[in-house]
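hiii, so i know i said id send this last week but things got crazy w the move. better late than never?? heres the sequnce for the chain we talked about at the cafe, plus the structure i predicted for it. fair warning i was half asleep when i ran it
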Amino acid sequence: MKRAVASVLFICLSLAGKAQVTLGYRLGYGTYSMQSVSEYQESILKACGFPAKIVEKFPAYFNQRFYIGNSKQQNINKLYLGYETTGGRINVSDYSGKWMFDMILNGYQGGFRIDVPGRHSERVEFHPYIDVGITSTVMKLEQYLEVGPQNLKDSYTFIANEVSFQPGITVMVKFKWIEAGCYAGYETGVSTAFHEKGNSNAKLGISANQLTKPQWAGIRAGIEISYRFKKRVKS
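okay and structure toks below
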């Protein structure tokens, strides 16, 4: 993923040397399917041997993306870097002690946007889009056990990669060099199974036939703002 991010940054810097560069930022809210990860969480609950319960089950949460592109180009005219997160927790506590099992997922994204021509007026523009990219998910499994004065804490890190697609629509209002508006879309994708960090052969799953994978599929909606740099005039 580091190589992919470095490649995107290199292309972004190349675009920055051209005319009419646009920088954009999205702050959104998303739902996340995480069906496979939820099934793994439930299997841990059944196997733990404690009268525990699930208190967090991968809820909807905020996400964000940064864009850079050439506003004079059509179709594939922006590159992006993004971030999204969610998590789950199993918990039990009483007078004798406490046990927690956390699953924290962070998704790091990079890709490009395809803008589809839509309707526009002098001030308002409405058009469909599709973001295509790679989401590298880092999941930390953290366990904490406390019995009387004794406590134990350990953690494991797992990684998975996903090819993601997000079709949607945007409505933008133009204010000279600044545009602001909102967007709505749906993200889906195809992911590999989680493997332990540093050991791609150590897969995570309920069984060899039921491996665990991230599923960031869900609704995306939020606000967007972009700034278009003025074209430099050669003297």
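btw Residues 2-16 form the longest helix (15 residues). thought thatd interest u
miss u guys!!
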